[in-house]
Design goal:
416 residues, 3 domains, 5 strands, histidine kinase, ATP binding, phosphoprotein, HATPase_C_sf, nucleotide-binding
Length: 416
């Protein structure tokens, strides 16, 4: 019974929402068209296009009367605060225009259907059930009788009570089709205002944005660690090495103290070399200062396997350069460790809105990313940037690793 009452409330509230909505939309359209003659109405018409947003929010909340839980909003959260960012995002979203179409449909058609269904399933039976009260209000049988719902004439209390029983029975019977109509009506609203495809796309978009934010935060933390090591620990080791070198000059040649200072000096130099290699692995300075092309050449020079490079690239966004650089470095490391290749080549170009890099070696082939070669992690890293990683490695070789990242080049720095 509770569910039937909620269905009745949903249908009646649809009439209460649709009738005022028709008045507001019609008045706003007329006022906007008239005021557009003096340009003032153009912003009003633009705001009228957003009228579906509050209507959609109200309808998703109203759907809780007949559906389990509120429908998820298909709208995304603006990336920046402020009304301007909110308006830009809403105008670009398909959900805004679906909600506007629903608002027009609600104002012109749906609330009239709700009114017709409510009149047939609620008003008519209740009017019959109220026959005794109507007869009493008109003065009873001596008052001339009444005609409940304009159907038949009732001039006595027994006839009025019989009419009331018919009305109650009719009301109980019509509550079932009323519930079916309310469920179908809510399903139409769900289909137009919050389709499951839109919900899935919104969630995937939010997951993608959150993953990109995590990668950006990771890159920022990587650069901070590199900067702290470069400007802090490395400078202290350099000072320590210089101090040990000066102390060796003051110690007597061949003395035990000179030998210990020489050993300490060598250890400091080795620690400094390892720290520099660690800093280069965290975030190479050449990548930040000169770009991806120079960083690829630097990685090729440090590879144990001879590498031919052909990289002609503009400056690209930092996440793109970083992702591509570490992919190339991991590929060259795999060439040195697993391929048995005598030579490798790296080709990198930017064209048609995407960075494309290809790493090729003449090794034995048979590389499988699923066996833990590090390529799976690189594919996940590139997926954050909407990039793709492809590995072709037949037995006997050659192995070709290709990556593609859609991006826009960075604008050139202003002339000095």
């Amino acid at each position: 019974m509770k569910r039937k009452l909620r269905s009745a409330a949903y249908v009646v509230s649809g009439v209460a929402v649709g009738a005022p909505l028709l008045v507001v939309l019609a008045a706003g359209l007329v006022l906007g068209l008239v005021a557009s003659l003096v340009v003032v109405g153009i912003p009003l018409l633009g705001l009228l296009a957003l009228a579906g947003v509050p209507v959609g929010a109200l309808e998703r909340r109203r759907a809780r009367l007949v559906r389990q839980g509120p429908a998820t909003s298909p709208h995304r959260t603006p990336d920046a605060p402020g009304l301007a960012a909110w308006l830009r995002l809403r105008v670009r979203e398909q959900a805004t225009w679906r909600e506007l179409a629903y608002a027009v449909l609600m104002a012109c058609v749906l609330w009239l259907l709700d009114l017709a269904v409510a009149a047939c399933t609620l008003v008519l039976p209740l009017a019959l059930a109220a026959a005794p009260a109507q007869l009493a209000l008109t003065g009873g049988p001596d008052g001339g009788g009444v005609r409940p719902a304009k159907l038949w004439f009732v001039a006595s209390y027994p006839a009025a009570c019989g009419t009331a029983l018919i009305g109650l029975a009719l009301l109980a019977a019509l509550l079932y089709p009323l519930g079916a109509y309310a469920t179908a009506r809510a399903a139409v609203a769900q289909l137009l205002l919050a389709p499951r495809e839109a919900e899935t796309e919104a969630r995937l978009a939010e997951v993608t944005r959150s993953r990109a934010r995590l990668v950006a935060a990771f890159e920022a933390e990587r650069r901070r660690v590199e900067r702290d090591l470069h400007d802090g620990a490395q400078q202290r080791l350099v000072a320590l090495s210089m101090g040990l070198g000066l102390a060796r000059l003051d110690a007597g040649p061949g003395s035990p103290l000179a030998d210990r200072l020489a050993a300490a000096h060598q250890e400091a130099d080795r620690a400094l070399a390892e720290l520099r290699e660690l800093i280069r692995g965290i975030h190479p300075r050449v990548l930040a200062d000169y770009g991806l092309a120079a960083a690829i050449e630097d990685a090729a020079d440090r590879s144990p396997v001879p590498v031919d490079t052909d990289a002609d690239l503009p400056r690209l966004p930092e996440p793109v350069e970083s992702g591509a650089y570490f992919a190339v470095r991991e590929a060259l490391a795999n060439v040195a460790r697993h391929s048995g290749a005598a030579r490798a080549a790296v080709h990198a170009r930017y064209a048609d809105g995407a960075l494309r890099v290809r790493v090729r070696d003449d090794g034995r082939g048979g590389a499988e990313p699923a066996r833990g070669s590090g390529l799976t992690g690189l594919a996940d890293r590139l997926a954050v940037l909407d990039g793709t990683l492809t590995v072709t490695s037949p037995p006997g070789g050659p192995t070709v690793l290709s990556l593609e990242i859609p991006c826009d080049p960075m604008p050139p720095p202003p002339a000095a």
